């Protein structure tokens, strides 16, 4: 057996009892905390999902970040700057949550830049116009909210708690995107066309953010049994469609799906099928911007090496100094050995 820190325990007979306690905690809808025993599969699944989520936030800074220097006004620049900075913060909370499970942050980054760990497919699409910034806020942050609000009730404490603040910020992000699009829709014909074009390009990739259909989602059953995920991929996709359709009508844009219509009987919208082969291609590294996104992340990591070295040297100096201070304090108090 392993302890909550992944180290081997000398008491294998304790495992069934620990498993029972774990199962009971999950059944009572209580939280698993870092100090608690947990099955290795639970730990691995969480590290996988949280790391992918953290990587998505960090890589997700790039598509909109490209517009910071080109935003059309100081106000738009300040808003965009704040949003992209929030995404960096989300990535950092999430890496910290992964660390509570025994993962090493430097190792996770290596896995990302070597293509051994995934990040969300959505960030592999280009942002050719400023309307893309608005549509990312509206669709991508909107989808992130649908997916992540239930994760505030995820069974792993540090992940669930990090989601609370992240979701508040995503909500601001979603509104700033929608407000930007409302402004553009009140502008010129060219601006309205730009918004519609961005909506056409981002709609299907946004639906793919929720993952493959339930029948093809290998991780869903266990993740839901463990209450890491609270709803299935298809359920969350449906919620996103139901939330977005009235917003599109208010904005005056058309969602590019001829099969989209209200189903009176179900009390929900029917909609078309995303091109799942496209999702597979993008996840396997063949999306329009995969190479460029990872190359940029790798360059930023390498360029930042001196900062990490300086921070490590500074921390060592501080530790040596405080060790020195503690020894001299003890000498003064006459307690040093
Ligand atoms: N892209 O069995 P399932 C954001 C992978 S943050 C890439 O259904 P699961 C904020 C999946 O990992 C956006 N890979 O998997 C923001 C698995 O691969 P593996 C990120 C995908 O984990 C806004 C395989 O396919 N959000 O937007 C995708 O049960 C604006 C089979 O799939 C999160 O990470 C995909 N779309 O469900 C930032 C939320 N879909 O590991 C900047 C947390 C599936 O077995 C600007 N994550 N895969 O090799 C989750 O809720 C889940 O992990 C899912 C996938 C729903 C994404």
Shape: globular
In the CATH hierarchy, what is the class? Mainly Alpha
Chain-averaged pLDDT: 94
Count helical runs. 13
Largest sheet data? 2 strands, antiparallel
**Beta strand %:** under 5%
Protein name: 1,2-phenylacetyl-CoA epoxidase subunit A
InterPro entries: Aromatic_CoA_ox/epox (IPR052703), Ferritin-like (IPR012347), Ferritin-like_SF (IPR009078), PaaA (IPR011881), PaaA_PaaC (IPR007814)
GO molecular function: phenylacetyl-CoA 1,2-epoxidase activity
Could you give a short description of this structure?
One of its GO terms (molecular function) is phenylacetyl-CoA 1,2-epoxidase activity. This protein has 13 helices and two strands; from the N terminus they run ααααααααααββααα.
Question: What does this molecule look like?
Answer:
Residues 311-337 are annotated as: Disordered. Residues 311-320 have a biased composition (Low complexity). It comes from Streptomyces nodosus. InterPro entries: Aromatic_CoA_ox/epox, Ferritin-like, Ferritin-like_SF, PaaA, PaaA_PaaC. The chain is mostly helical and 337 residues long. It has a single domain, classed as Up-down Bundle (Ferritin). Helix content is 65%, strand content 2%. It is built from 13 helices and two strands, in the order H-H-H-H-H-H-H-H-H-H-E-E-H-H-H. The protein has helices at 15-27, 40-59, 61-65, 74-99, 105-113, 131-148, 157-185, 189-208, 220-225, 233-251, 276-286, 290-303, 305-333; strands at 261-263, 268-270. It has a two-stranded antiparallel ribbon. A hairpin with a 4-residue loop joins strand 1 (261-263) and strand 2. The longest helix is centred in the middle third of the chain and has 29 residues, at 157-185. The two termini are 40 Å apart. Residues 1-10 have low confidence and may be disordered. Bound molecules: Phenylacetyl coenzyme A. Phenylacetyl coenzyme A is lined by residues 48-49, 52-53, 56-57, 60, 87, 118, 120-121, 136, 140-141, 144, 147, 208-212, 217-220, 223, 229, 233, 283. The site of Phenylacetyl coenzyme A has 29 residues, from helix 2, helix 6 and helix 9.
């Amino acid at each position: 057996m392993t302890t909550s820190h992944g180290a081997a325990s000398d008491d294998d007979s304790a495992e069934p009892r620990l498993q029972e306690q774990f199962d009971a905690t999950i059944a009572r809808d209580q939280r698993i905390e870092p100090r608690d025993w947990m099955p290795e599969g639970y730990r691995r699944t969480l590290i996988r999902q949280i790391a992918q989520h953290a990587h998505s936030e960090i890589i997700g800074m790039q598509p909109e970040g490209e517009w910071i220097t080109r935003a059309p006004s100081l106000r738009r620049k300040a808003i965009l700057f704040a949003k992209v900075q929030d995404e960096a913060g989300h990535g950092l909370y999430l890496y910290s949550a992964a660390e509570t499970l025994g993962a090493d942050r430097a190792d996770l980054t290596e896995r990302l830049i070597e293509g051994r760990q995934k990040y969300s497919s959505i960030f592999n699409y280009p942002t050719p116009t400023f309307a893309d910034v608005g549509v990312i806020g509206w669709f991508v942050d909107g989808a992130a909210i649908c997916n992540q609000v239930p994760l505030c009730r995820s069974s792993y404490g540090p992940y669930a708690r990090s989601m609370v603040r992240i979701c508040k910020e995503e909500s601001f992000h979603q509104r700033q995107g929608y407000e930007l699009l409302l402004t553009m829709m009140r502008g010129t014909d060219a601006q309205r066309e730009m918004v519609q074009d961005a909506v056409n390009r981002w709609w299907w990739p946004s639906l793919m953010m929720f993952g493959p259909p339930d029948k093809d989602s290998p991780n869903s059953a266990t993740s839901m049994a463990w209450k890491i995920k609270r709803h299935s991929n298809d359920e969350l996709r449906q919620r996103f469609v139901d939330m977005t359709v009235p917003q599109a009508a208010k904005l005056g844009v058309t969602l590019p799906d001829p099969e989209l219509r209200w189903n009176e009987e179900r009390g929900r919208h029917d909609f078309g099928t995303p091109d799942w082969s496209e999702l597979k291609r993008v996840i396997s590294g063949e999306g329009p911007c995969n190479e460029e996104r990872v190359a940029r992340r790798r360059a930023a990591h390498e360029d930042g090496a001196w900062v990490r070295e300086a921070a490590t040297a500074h921390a060592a100096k501080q530790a040596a100094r405080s060790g020195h201070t503690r020894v001299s304090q003890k000498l003064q108090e006459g307690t040093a050995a």
